[in-house]
Amino acid sequence: MSGAFEQSLSHSYLNGSNANFIEALYEQYLADPDAVDAHWRDYFRDLESMDPSRVRDVPHGPIREAFEQLGRSSTRGRAVLAGEGMDAMAAQKQAAVLRLINAYRVRGHQHADTDPLDLRERPTVSDLDPAFHGLTDADLETPFNTGSLFAPDRLTLREILEQVRAVYAGKVGSEYMHITDTAQKRWIQERLEKSKVTAQLSEAEKVSLLKRLTAAEGIEKYLNSKYVGQKRFSLEGGEATIPVLDEIVQRGGSQGVKELVLGMAHRGRLNVLINVMGKSPAELFAEFDGEHAPEHANAGDVKYHMGYSSDIQTEGGPLHLALAFNPSHLEIVNPVVEGSARARMYRHDDTVGETVLPVLIHGDAAMAGQGVVMETFQLSQARGFYTGGTVHLVINNQIGFTTSNPLDTRSTFYCTEVAKMVQAPIFHVNGDDPEAVLFVTQLAMDYRREFHSDVVIDLVCYRRHGHNEADEPSATQPMMYKKIKARPSVRKLYADQLAEEGVLESEQSKALEREYRDALDAEQVVAPGALEDQETDYAVDWSPYFDATWDMPVDTSLSVDRIRHLQEQLQRLPEGFDLNPRVATVMESRRKMAAGALDMDWGFAETIAYASLLEEGHRVRLTGQDSGRGTFFHRNSVLHNAADGSTHTPLKTIPEQPDDFVVIDSLLSEEAVLGFEYGYATADPETMVIWEAQFGDFANGAQVLIDQFIASGETKWGRLCGLTLYLPHGYEGQGPEHSSARIERFLQLCAEQNIQVCVPSTPAQFFHMIRRQMLRAWRKPLVVMTPKSLLRHKLSTSVLDDLSNGYFHNVIDDTEGVKASAVRRVVVCSGKVYYDLLEERRRQGRGDVALIRVEQLYPFPEAELSALLKRRYKTAREVVWCQEEPKNQGAWYQSYHHLTQCITREQKLTYAGREASASPAVGYGKVHHEQQRRLVADALGKVHG
């Protein structure tokens, strides 16, 4: 036994009769070392050090046995048992009290009165019954040590119960004991237990709170009477949302927040737009009347999907509010908001989230049911995606969608369980208690400021109407809606409360309703603190990008001297940096490429493209599951020291600010990561934002983002975005899952010059395409079918002159010097299949077949292809579109109408490729190679006599 342990035997409480008391202390120590006195903390630490196999989360039973054994065996222990220490029964009772306090911290939320409808029977939690711990009514007036409870050192059991029930089982149910960080837990405990979960509001603050509830209810009543039967996705039943958002804005402003990015679904959006963001009622009414046409949008969108931005005056100065546009796919907007917040943080030079705050409003069923919620939480603390903590507000209607049974919408007791994965505290609060709601909001905002971590407010309320105003919820939810119809609104309940407290008379309360209605009649802005024409140093001017066209000329060339200068800088390594031999070979090859001693490959061309943009003042952000190294070991933008594991990113040495280049190996997510990058790109036109799929088909996991944001965001919302997608594509015998990036899906989405779809076939093309994307003032998403085997193909190379004198060719004519007048067949293709055709044509020695590559499939370069087919190869009578993909996939069907415009009447257009298939590719190598041989033969055809 150690000397420290022997010395601790002299403590008067250390004996077997006090084992229960010490056991309880040890439980507290396990949960939070700072919760016990320093003497006990040192003692427990010394005890653990005796046996290194014991870790702090082991069951405390063995420790208790040690105490009891110690009491039986030590002389000092026997002396205490004789009367010098605490009475054995008293020690046992004291331990029981400490366990009871801990039980309320852990499970008190299950008994909390958080549901205004009292729909769900609260579970029986035996831990919360004093009798479970051996305490009886006879103990109620007995004083006990309160342990780590933020309260006087000693209280009667009755007083302790009153406090823990008020704090943990009142109108707020707090879940935070799952957090492993002691400082965070103790901070929450102190805020809850010292305040007893009571908002200390002045009479003026209470009147102000009633005004906000009046506004929340008032706009819904006004719209219902003015536009009877029209969908508005009412907030009624959850009106406390408006005071929550007001408090977030105002408290955020006082804490230094300058920009707040808000994401939410459609329910309550119109209310938020009018009462929080300061949208003009006249503008909203015009939308209801069908007379409002948004600027820079063609088709537009329904009014409860539209975004908005405004500026609100706070104690800390103006705060810019940005409400994200979003479709009906509910939670899909979450990562978009986070990406936008990250871009804004960069503009503010804010690395921790002091000045930018993301806020996400969830529905209960959507938060529990949609996987993008989990993916977004997983981003929250990840390098490259961190936004300083998000405030999550769940408008918990307890129903999800009208015909659902609440028991069917999730398997968990709460809809918020997913938040525990990042150890976010969760505060469930009764939506019909506005003061409790306000307290929780203040607590959440202060927690986020203190720890820059996510926090969740679960606003338990209800939905007064159906899913929309034409729905009849009583047909499927008769019991719930019987209660709802009989229940006064939260505004009425709070007005009555203030009348009872003598704060506001009934007539004064009614006057508030009239004032709000009169303001709407006058079409006045009703959001408090709304500012007009506010200028900010952090705003982005998008006007240079509004009138750009896809075919505007731009010089993407780079002199040989600049290329060599950049490569020389990229070659410099920190002193003592030991490269892996294979990486060292790559670096040496790139040195030779810059010198002109070796044809350049794709990795070299791509790296120099980024370096040149960075040198010119642009920024580059590249994310994907293997982006640092590259899925195919082709990029190697992050170098790893073989000696000690440290890293070096050469591209970070090019710009003045190293963070102007970001490359992140992302988590295994497509939907959330692509959403994040889309959000980033919509907030920053001067950063080349790239998302790279590990294989092109992985984009399938993010199809919602592609359909509802990337392809249609400009048409619906006037939202420009220069996001680039790298999707490795090519048929190389890797089976159905790793062959196709589904070109056909992207081409099907193409219209109104909304996106670009490119299939570069050489490193130089890739280089010029990258530079064109940033140097041209045309901010449209770029979808790139990037290569796999071509990365090292002996024919797919370029030379320095291709970069210094070249540009991106939408169409590449035959480069083998065929005589146009001798050509009888022209094969038009894109991507890797060109090299298969080229090699077979060389093998056959054919001069009657020309090979043309279409490098940009959309916007389709009809003029350039027409010039070749109708003039240069006008004597050819056969034009063949050749592709590797099955006939019903690839570019054939979606490009057919373009191709027919590019040929003469005498020319016949045919198809060469795989037969139509339900699967993208075969799974057997021999079958694949035979299919490939056949389609190449079909494309080249027979030799013309």
UniProtKB/TrEMBL annotation:
SUPFAM superfamilies: Thiamin diphosphate-binding fold (THDP-binding). Keywords: Oxidoreductase, Thiamine pyrophosphate. InterPro entries: 2-oxogl_dehyd_N, 2oxoglutarate_DH_E1, DH_E1, KGD_C_sf, ODO-1/KGD_C, THDP-binding, Transketolase-like_Pyr-bd. GO terms for biological process: tricarboxylic acid cycle. GO terms for molecular function: oxoglutarate dehydrogenase (succinyl-transferring) activity; thiamine pyrophosphate binding. Its EC number is 1.2.4.2. Residues 600-793 form the Transketolase-like pyrimidine-binding domain. Its cofactor is thiamine diphosphate. GO terms for cellular component: cytosol; oxoglutarate dehydrogenase complex. It is an enzyme of class 1 (oxidoreductase). E1 component of the 2-oxoglutarate dehydrogenase (OGDH) complex which catalyzes the decarboxylation of 2-oxoglutarate, the first step in the conversion of 2-oxoglutarate to succinyl-CoA and CO(2). PANTHER family: 2-OXOADIPATE DEHYDROGENASE COMPLEX COMPONENT E1 (PTHR23152:SF4), 2-OXOGLUTARATE DEHYDROGENASE (PTHR23152). Belongs to the alpha-ketoglutarate dehydrogenase family. This is 2-oxoglutarate dehydrogenase E1 component. It comes from Spiribacter salinus M19-40. The lineage of its organism: Bacteria, Pseudomonadati, Pseudomonadota, Gammaproteobacteria, Chromatiales.
